[in-house]
Amino acid sequence: MKKTRKRTTLQRYWTKRYVLTLISGLVLLSIFSLWWMEKTALEYRLSLLKYLADETSDRAIKANGQIVVGPVLSEIVEEREKILHLNQQPIIYIVDPDGSIIYTMPQLYIDADENKLPSVIMKNPELIQKVKISDNKVYVVKSPITFNEETKGWVVIAQEEGALKELNQDHGLLAIMIGGLLVLGTGVIYLLSRQISRPIQDVANAAVQVREGNYDIHFKEEEDIREEEIYELIESFKEMTNRLKAMEKLRAELLAGVTHDLKTPVTSISGLIQAVKDDVVTGEQSKEFLDISLKETKRLQGMIEDLLNYNAISAGAFKIRVQKENINTFIQEIAYRWKVTQDDQEFNLDIKVPEEPIFGQIDSLRMQQIVINLLNNARHSLDGIGRLEINLYEKEDNRICIDVQDSGRGIPVHEQQYVFEPFYRGEDKKLKIRGLGLGLPFSKMLAKAQKGDLVLKESNEQGTTFTIIVEKANQI
Predict the structure, then answer these.
(1) Considering all CA atoms of the chain, what is the largest pairwise distance in Å, rounded to the nearest integer?
(2) Which of 150, 224, 372, 395 lies deepest, with the highest CB count within 10 Å?
(3) Do residues 327 and 442 share a domain?
């Protein structure tokens, strides 16, 4: 059994992740800040130790060139050490040129065997160096004691690395700053996540209502929404619900219309045959009633055939055999055959094809159904004398277009979006022509089955143009 994953709200989901991201960023920032502060503190204190060593070396030599130490020097050193703000006092050595210890501050007990600084300190030319003594990392600062350009000794200051890097109150300031940023950032993230998730939550709740069949959805005023993407989402959802509401209403109307259109010929046939059977009509009149019944039967048969064909292609059970065809010749032949079968010839049919033949990949039988259906619709739209036109041309995207145009009254603007909806028929057409309203939807599906399309190019008071789009075949 598949385990259902536990879900959470959008606001909680993103707030949690943003806060975790913020915490991770603040931790990295804290680590970097601590490293930088320790580095800065080390450099600053080493520079102060160097200054202390230089000052001590200047005061440790007398005018006669002898190294002396005393209470005055100790007081000066203690005063300067206060500037360093160190919890651990550094050790100051005054040594002779060979490194033998003359004086220490603070005073230390030194064995006679250890009365000399390590050679690694004295022989290194660097005045600031880092050495390891007894597993401790120690920074050593040196300053020469000179008289008449002769080195009489050295002032050596030693301090452990940890004491130099110690930040004292800076740790507390950093913790307060990072904690404040965390609290402020969490609050801002929560408010922003709430602002973004609330309209999305409204859309999600509206979607649940639509799923339950309630299309009467209301959202808050769009002026309160500043994010363009969320505004577009809500507007698109509102338009979708309006379309669904209109389609639901249209579906009910179409179902009633289709039921009526199927019932009418059955009623007519039943009444006519019953009249002949009961000898209500006899002789020539009975034959006329039977002829009418036969026509109604054929019309009913055609409507049922349209319905079956539409259902077949909708279910993918419709076979399409696409092959290379000369579209110029195909259009001219179809148009001629259709024209001669029309009872009323009070219209003009113009056919415009290029001089060079255009070859396309089509199913000639199915394409013939599309063209004839468009011509029939165009003919019905004419009021008396009018003009029909078929125009064949190529598009730049290697596609072939066939325009079927009429000079009829056009399709009302509010009906144009529904012309390819199954069972839909315009108000004017509904009164004049009986049918199921499957001609255009079926034709569009046939065109798409041939990797093409059927679109309403334009429609106004001057006429209507439908365009069939088909794939162009290779000329080889």
Answers:
(1) 161
(2) 372
(3) yes
